[in-house]
Amino acid sequence: MVEDLPITSTEQRLKDQHTELLLHLDGWFERVETTISRLQTTIDHAPVTHLLPSHPRFSVSSRGSQSKESKDTIGDPSNSFLKEKAPSMSVRSEPSLRNSRTSMKRLDSYTVAVKKSSRISESFKKVWTKDGSHTSMQVHRQNPSRCKKLWASLTEFSEKVIHSQWANLFFGAAILSNSLFLGIQLQYRAQNPGPSDTSIVFFVIHTLYAVLFTVEVLLRLLGEGFWDFFFSSSWTWNWLDVFVVISSWAELSLEFASPTGSTSISNSNLRLVRVLRVGRLLRVLRVIRVARVFKALRTLVRSLMDTSKQLVWAMLLLTLIMYMFSIVFTDIVLDHLEDTGEQDTTMEKYFGTLYDSFFTLFRAILNGISWYDAADALRPINLLWVQWFHFYIAFCQFAVLNVMTGVFCNSAIKAAERDHETVVQSLMQNREDFRAQVSNLFYRIDERGLGKITLTELEKHLDDEAVKAFFESLEIGAVDAWTLFLSLDIDGDNLISIDEFMERCVQLRGPARSVDLYAIRRLNVKIRDEMRFLEDQQHRIMAHLGVKHEHQDAHEIEPTVFI
């Protein structure tokens, strides 16, 4: 037992030295990789002075010196080896570093990125969890109090509720039912004026709606935060909700304080009643907010909001046109009445003043009146003015209104395309429809129902015109069955499963995209690097064997990289 103690301590010391050496080598190689990447351009274009070490003993002495130094390090647990011998090791092992650098180029970039990410994650864990020398970087957090935990859980719960589809549907239904309740209440008041026994029922229902909308506002305030609730992109709706809640509670307070109902209140305080009426109007206006729950309704509302600017300019243009024509018709009618000295009630009805002429022209193009009667009113003056009125009707109907309709339709289409949620839902729906079509095609080819497609089955059904047309409808083209089979078989087992078939059909659908071209470019660059590596290896082997060959500059012919 006594003799085993030195052996155990020596093995433990060797393990510690080995672990420490690996850590230092890992950091040293990272610094070497960084230096090499910075000098990459200069090294690639520099002339090759020697392809293999000029002295064969160089590598042997390097290995021997390294082994000797490692033996010396075993006996010394200090870091003197890394401090004193590292420069000599980096100089003597220069050819091996070049070989290691060249071999590192051949590694898959994805594997290198994953390894580097793993190293960073491990280093981060060590820094933030290890005791001792890293305690200065460790964050010491005090345990949150019970109030903070309760507030955090309440905030998290509120955020989940406001982003829940069922919660949006519930509050949307509450808004719709509240609008319906307001209509029923007004209709009842119109049919039963004065105080009634049912006022207490309306008061209770109104209170329930006020509580429900207050809970909704509080949930949104907790889930979104104070700043985001009042100053985010949807601040208009949030301020509207706050105003509706405040006006509802104010109206309830007045109804509760008044023994005779809201009539006496309205007579005593008209200003406050006007504010409450605005609150009721805004409560009805909140129905528009339900549009965000339903896709079709949201598209219509978004289109109307985006076309409001075009609507203003269209109405301005139409107003200018009607104003110009009304001036002409009013002037002609007044001159005619002054010249004849007679009164024409029909002519004065339609064109007696500028106001009458303007609204006659407005109603005529919108079927508010029969424009035939308005045109006949100008017949006593001259038939030329009747035809001028006909020209106004044709110009507005066929030119102005049709152009406005086209502008509105174009704006509505663009608004629907800019709606992010609508676009995402449309893409998801198209993807699901495409997967359903691909699944039907798979089960049509798989007649035996084994869940696998063989080459024979694919060749058999690919000759069918219906299957060909189905592939073309899916925007998947193939020269022959074998090419298509190789494209669909991912794992290369000569069988195509339903998952492989659906995944590859989604990838092969349509023409080449930018990501496909970029992948080809990266693959082309990788092949070029592999060719350069093989060429360098060939030159070194030939130089090592002493074979004479015609030297060709590596930069005279470069493989073409398609970008």
UniProtKB/TrEMBL annotation:
Q: From what superkingdom does this record's organism come? A: Eukaryota
Report the locations given in the UniProt record: Membrane
Under the heading InterPro entries, the entry gives:
EF-hand-dom_pair, EF_Hand_1_Ca_BS, Ion_trans_dom, VGCC_Ca_Na, Volt_channel_dom_sf
The record, for SUPFAM superfamilies, names:
EF-hand (SSF47473), Voltage-gated potassium channels (SSF81324)
Q: Which Gene3D superfamilies match?
A: 1.10.287.70, EF-hand, Voltage-gated potassium channels. Chain C
Instruction: Please report a single Pfam family linked to this protein.
Output: Ion_trans
GO MF term set: voltage-gated sodium channel activity
What range(s) does the Ion transport domain occupy? 165-411
What keywords would UniProt list here? Answer: Calcium, Ion channel, Ion transport, Membrane, Transmembrane, Transmembrane helix, Transport
PANTHER family the record matches: SODIUM CHANNEL PROTEIN 60E (PTHR10037:SF62), VOLTAGE-GATED CATION CHANNEL CALCIUM AND SODIUM (PTHR10037)
Q: Mind telling me what this protein is named?
A: Sodium channel protein
